[in-house]
Amino acid sequence: MSAKVARIIKEVSLQSQTASVPTTTLVTPGEAKMFRVSVAGSQSGPGDAICQVNWTDDLSSQMVNTTLGLGTWTTFAIHSVAGQPVTFDVGLFPGPSTYNCYITLEEL
After folding, report:
1. Which of 1, 13, 7 lies closest to 33, judged by CA?
2. Does pLDDT of 86 surpass 90?
3. Regarding the domain with residue range 7-107, which homologous superfamily does it belong to in the CATH classification?
4. Of residues 39, 40, 13, 10, the one with CA closest to residue 25
5. Average pLDDT over residues 101-105
6. What confidence tens digit (pLDDT) does each residue in 5-49 have?
7. 15-48 b/e (C-beta count within 10 Å ≥ 16 → b)
8. Residue 89 pLDDT exceeds 80
């Protein structure tokens, strides 16, 4: 039995951003699939930049928030059902910041 290799589905690179990012679709799977999501970033300024990844699994809607601080990164696995999008957005709380946000979505 040969090992399955993860395949990059989508990469996002947001540099020197100063505004929020509205909900943006990374992928809408045609069948239920496992994915690995990696989020990395940094930010400066008085507020917090928070990247939220959303998906729907067999039970309900799910989300993971990552605050984009100095050298922040996180990696997590998700199971997404068919026909429901995997999305992300970036919010700024309480006010302006300059941030970088990098996302890689891999099919497992």
Report:
1. 7
2. yes
3. Galactose-binding domain-like (2.60.120.260)
4. 10
5. 98
6. 899 999 999 999 999 999 999 999 999 999 999 999 999 988 889
7. eebeeebeeeebbebeeebebbbebbbbbeeeeb
8. yes
